[in-house]
Each structure stands twice: as structure tokens, then as C-alpha cells.
């Protein structure tokens, strides 16, 4: 068995109209498929490039959001989420587009971290300056459903030496 990539990720929307407006107008992702579900809900798909989609379910009655459990409460100060939850979704962008992403988010009034975050292998995992050890640069923001999102630009390809930590075992009962 060999996968060829991600087809789509499916999330849950608080308000489908607000979600459609955000993803089509703010993020520029075309709405490519809509489905009316037999239980009165909806399932909509947005083209996010590279033959992949981000999809949303919506139902008239849905449990409330659970920040700190099913989604990030506040990045970066409180970004832990529960086992089996989705922490955030990262969209691949070219490095030269990151400043434009920041500008667009600010102009649209979208909650975001107002700087490009450089991820490296330092103790803190981030640094203020771009250097040869930076492997991805990111812009973090929140969508109207409270879901943490990221525009991520890889700065280099991973190599075998990038896998250098042994996995740790579970510390909580599942």
C-alpha cells in the first residue's frame, strides 16, 4: 500500500455561510463541491491547491467548540490539544508569498500572529532571523470557526539526518 498524498481534510463549521465567505474571499480557495446531507447538514469542499481540498461539515445542531481540547486555545502560549484532535492545518505556500499572506490577513481583519515564524532545531524551536538551520517559515492565523491555520513555506528538503529523536511512549491512559 502506498498513499500519494492528502485528498482532503474534513473539519466542522459553526456557520457554513461565514466559512464559505472566509475560504473563498479571504483565502482565495474556490468552492468546488457542495453536498446536502440526509440529516439536514452540509458538506462543502474548497480547492486548496496541489489536487487537495479542505472540506467542512455543518449541521443545524452541533456541539460547541472545545478550545484546549479539540482545538488550540491560544497559540503559542496554550497550543496543546487532546489525543485524536487536530492541532492545526498548514497550507503550503511559496516562501516569497508569506509577506503577502500577512498583508491579506491584516487587511481582512483576521486574527493572526503578525510576524513570520522561523522554525529551526534550536532549543526553543524558533528563531528571529532566517539562517541555514531554518526548515520552515510560517504565518499562523485563526479561521472563523476558531481553527488554528498556518501558511507554511519549506526552506529545504528533509534528509535522513533530520530524523534524530526516538519516539516516546504514552504517558496518559487512552
UniProtKB/TrEMBL annotation:
Domain VOC, chain residue ranges per copy: 5-154
Protein name: Glyoxalase
Organism: Caulobacter mirabilis
Amino acid at each position: 500500500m502506498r498513499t500519494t498524498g492528502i485528498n482532503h481534510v474534513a473539519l466542522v463549521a459553526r456557520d457554513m455561510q461565514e466559512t464559505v465567505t472566509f475560504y473563498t474571499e479571504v483565502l482565495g480557495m474556490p468552492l468546488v463541491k457542495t453536498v446536502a446531507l440526509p440529516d439536514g447538514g452540509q458538506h462543502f469542499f474548497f480547492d486548496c491547491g496541489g489536487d487537495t481540498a479542505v472540506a467542512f461539515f455543518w449541521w443545524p445542531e452541533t456541539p460547541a467548540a472545545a478550545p484546549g481540547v479539540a482545538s488550540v486555545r491560544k497559540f503559542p502560549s496554550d497550543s496543546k490539544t487532546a489525543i485524536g484532535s487536530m492541532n492545526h492545518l498548514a497550507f503550503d505556500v511559496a516562501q516569497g508569498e508569506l509577506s503577502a499572506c500577512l498583508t491579506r490577513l491584516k487587511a481582512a481583519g483576521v486574527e493572526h500572529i503578525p510576524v513570520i515564524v522561523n522554525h529551526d532545531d534550536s532549543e526553543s524551536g524558533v528563531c528571529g532571523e532566517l539562517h541555514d538551520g531554518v526548515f520552515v517559515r510560517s504565518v499562523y492565523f485563526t479561521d472563523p470557526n476558531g481553527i488554528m491555520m498556518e501558511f507554511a513555506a519549506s526552506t529545504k528538503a528533509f534528509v535522513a539526518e533530520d530524523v534524530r529523536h526516538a519516539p516516546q511512549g504514552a504517558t496518559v491512559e487512552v
